[in-house]
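Deviation from plan, reported transparently: magnesium ion complex.
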Amino acid sequence: MGRTIAVANQKGGVGKTTTAINLAASLAVLEQRTLLIDIDPQANATSGLGIDPRQVTSSIYECMIDVVEPSSIVQKTAIQCLGLIPSHINLVGAEVEMINFESREEKMRRPLALLSEDYDYIIIDCAPSLGLITINALTAADSLIIPVQCEYFALEGLGKLLNTTKIIQSRLNPELEIEGILLTMYDSRLRLANQIVEEVKKHFQKMIFETIIPRNTRLGEAPSFGKPAILYDGESKGAISYLNLAQEIINKRAVQ
Amino acid sequence: MGRTIAVANQKGGVGKTTTAINLAASLAVLEQRTLLIDIDPQANATSGLGIDPRQVTSSIYECMIDVVEPSSIVQKTAIQCLGLIPSHINLVGAEVEMINFESREEKMRRPLALLSEDYDYIIIDCAPSLGLITINALTAADSLIIPVQCEYFALEGLGKLLNTTKIIQSRLNPELEIEGILLTMYDSRLRLANQIVEEVKKHFQKMIFETIIPRNTRLGEAPSFGKPAILYDGESKGAISYLNLAQEIINKRAVQ
Ligand SMILES: Nc1ncnc2c1ncn2[C@@H]1O[C@H](COP(=O)(O)OP(=O)(O)OP(=O)(O)O)[C@@H](O)[C@H]1O
Ligand SMILES: Nc1ncnc2c1ncn2[C@@H]1O[C@H](COP(=O)(O)OP(=O)(O)OP(=O)(O)O)[C@@H](O)[C@H]1O
Ligand SMILES: [Mg+2]
Ligand SMILES: [Mg+2]
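Because the crystal trials were delayed, the predicted structure below was used instead.
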């Protein structure tokens, strides 16, 4: 049984997609069978792996309403052990359509349970919101990675997200763990960035990954070539930091 | 009658809040009576002006459902001509509650019409989504500012947002204009940033503001002190660029 990890934070632009793409690619390079699922209608994880969202016909939504078999819509990527379930513009309307469904928060459970037999890791890239689609992912996931940009507003939102996680744990998914808080876009020359790191370490010591992702232009350039950083520039600080993150997650699991 | 400008982009972290706060503060410093309305449940524009969102009892939502008079919830700020309608956590539930309302997209029209008699400019900070609350703002606004971070994913989302704007113009608000596309977090040393600027200039030449907002650490530090950049460090490149933007918008209006 694979481990399903949602990458979520309602604060926008904190590095959710960059983390989802590069963590999934790194796990695959370390020979873990990995599936990346893009549930953000913006479809950044889809285009960041070189797939044109306009060519996509079905997404995870069609699996949630039992119209397609999840394994039938997995696309191959440039990395052997990495598959992708792309996003589709239909996801925009999904939230409204699902409002009146029976157990509307639990529709992603079945498709993910089916998929997790074929993979070691499933990584889910969420939209910058706590709407019904993201709630479905948190209800079905084993754990949650919270990317936190080393900026003031990102720090402010962290407390709110941890409260929401507690509510989900108590009502919808008692098994949901916090895989970790990931500090992103860290620039050691900036006083603000260092203050944020100190603050997060002080309040959330046990939950932070040892790996900190530096601000690195290669991470921003890679998606414009439709590749994860490890294929675009494997020697770059950005690519290496996500490889370290993948190894840290694999090691933690081995110990448990 | 004041001009209502929504600051919106479903892509997260592109500088919507930073633009809303600093443009509103700059307009006020240039002696335009200005109101900033925070409609993002994250309440970043609220805390960025030094107001604690936990102390807030009503937001624009209570005005949309006719429970409070909009002018009664305007808070004073450190700048004479600047008022704020803060955000409140209730906004999270508002989208679900409004789904079954009669003309649910037009609820913000009346409160904004009442308010615009007292101000020269009303600036609305939107959440990173195109949900019902953001649609309400676009339906009620005179124009729209689209912040675009000088990054690949932000460029990708621009086409989609312009399509959505056309739909709103045809169905809900024929008067909605594009005030402009604002390039943000521009770092002239980065090849990617220069490529993005070229791309946007090539495809959207007529819609871009002359003012480009540079990446400037003072803009990131200011909200942690609860101040707009013009009060935190008025000499900084960030503060000056938003003052230039405000002047550009005032001049454009004078000419029309
Ligand atoms: N460590 C990094 N160094 C440099 N640039 C980065 C880094 N991480 C992310 N970026 C860039 O910053 C921008 C925001 O990152 P990203 O899109 O991954 O955030 P997100 O949280 O997924 O945004 P959204 O809330 O819109 O889904 C992107 O343009 C990305 O390329
Ligand atoms: N020009 C700039 N220079 C440096 N930092 C900036 C600049 N503009 C914004 N920032 C910082 O980048 C981060 C993202 O900006 P901001 O929060 O304004 O974006 P947003 O679009 O409102 O995000 P969201 O989608 O979550 O609402 C913030 O931490 C902000 O302080
Ligand atoms: Mg994303
Ligand atoms: Mg914002």
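The first helix of chain A runs from residue 16 to 29. We consider this an acceptable substitute for the interim report.
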